[in-house]
Amino acid sequence: MSQSIGRAVSIGSMERLDTMSFHPRIRLRVVRMPQPAWVEPSLADLARIAQIDLSFSVWGLLTGRDAVERVEVRGANLQFYRTAQGRKNWSDDGSAERSGFGSGGRLLMLRVAESRLRYLDRKRDRSLDVAVASDASGLRIDGGGLILGSSVRITGRGAAIVDGRANAPWPFRVAIEGRAVGFALDGSMPSPLDLGHLQGQARAHADDLRLLDAIIEAGLPGTQPVRLAARIRRSIPDWTIDDLRGTIGRSDIAGHATIVKREGRSRITGALWANHFDFDDLSSNEGKRRAAAIKARLGPRILPGSAIDLTHVRRTDGALDLRVDHLLWSGQSPFRSMTAHVSLERSRLEISALRVGMTRGSMEGTMRIDQTDTSRPDPRLDLSLTLRGARLLDFFPRAQIDGSLIGRLAITGYGHTLADAFGAGHGVLALVGRDGQIPARTAALLGQDVGRGLTMGRDETDNLRCVVARLDIKGGMARPAPVLIDSSRALTQAWGSIDLRNERLMLSLKGAPKKPSLLRLPGQVGLGGTIKAPDIDVPPRTKTVGGVINMLASAIAGRQEPLAQDADCNALERQAMR
């Protein structure tokens, strides 16, 4: 032991309590095991035990099997410790994981009195300080601790371990209870204290899934408050979770998973499904506060600020099948359901077989996030989506413009959020709406036909021939190629650019009616502001009485610009969707 920790381990005295036997009984007094040299100097010894009586099997010792059979301990104080880098004072080389540390073996009797166990974990920001006792009335653990700064009470109960009567199976209950986080497990082990092999029913709650992850260490993100229940099994170092049910915020979840731990990595495989699910529930309150601060600083945005940084799951791999029957949103949205396969492999995340059901139609595609390039700190996003069978009205209900809608998005960019990646991205966004209806007033005004735009009835409609919008994106700058709206009344085109870094619009609109107009707005109209809050810049001369007179004079004198012709919607659709 001294050689193992690099410090002198001492035994005050040792004696044998029986005569010749293949199950000898030994008494040790004043056993002291100092902490390894690298442990924080303020911590007490790793182990200090006033007295320990133990018996073991000579045959087990000789054959390499579990040898200890009976243990009686008085006045033991243990101090376990893990550094922020994961180094453990009780297992410095990972041998515990490989050898099955935690197996209770053939422990036939355990008595513990006047003893305490302390644990300080700098890596997971958690600690505990509990009293441990074991006698004819059972095994008991009582004390407290901290999990990410939140206070918890820690209790444990197990059947008495006396003369082998508690073997196969050995029932137990352990509970960690606090206001912010709690975890309880009622189960059994094949033999007493066989921590490497157990099964039972688990229940948990937390203000944030990250708090619960500090207990189970599965690499889970921060979320809204959670309540979960599941059947679990452990066969060291792996966990199996069955019949998982619970809630995250206003979302419900169910499913199953297997967590396999090897060489410091966790692999999670399984399936999750939900009847109702809100993606906002995957952001903790802290994350929402950060997003609100960004929104207050930058103003309203349409591109999501969702984080795509994989740093917090760099040691997590796995694959999950996801299904959501009803998507929940804080406002109006055409997106109704979702299925996907999610795989994560050494900081490469891929969402494949993605299908989002909509009010009408669907959106399908893939998303990849790659954070393996050590030459740059931010991850790479590759997003490819195709829209089919949708309707314009479902996306733009306030505009009352309807028609069939198809589209596609392909973009590649680097950034710690989706908005950052779009703001530095390269790719294309294309939308094509066909054969629908548009309010007549809207069509007239888009064609800069002020006279008809101001006099048309609110309920009058025109035929929408096509809406074609293709944006070529380079370095976060999106440029129309082309963008136009063609109705039976007018044709409107746009050019300029959109800066996706700040969503600023720098566009010019040019509309033309298809019939002579009495009041026609000359020139072009500037479109500034942001995507979420556009600002139309009408030429100053049109706002005055003189401007109106000039428009009338131009109409009378025949000086108006040429009328528009129907666009070739079929050719424009092919151009946009290429």
TrEMBL record:
A GO BP entry: regulation of protein targeting to membrane
GO CC aspect terms: plasma membrane
Stretches that traverse the bilayer: none
Domain AsmA: 245-479
Pfam families: AsmA
InterPro entries: AsmA, AsmA-related
Name listed for the protein in its UniProt record: AsmA domain-containing protein
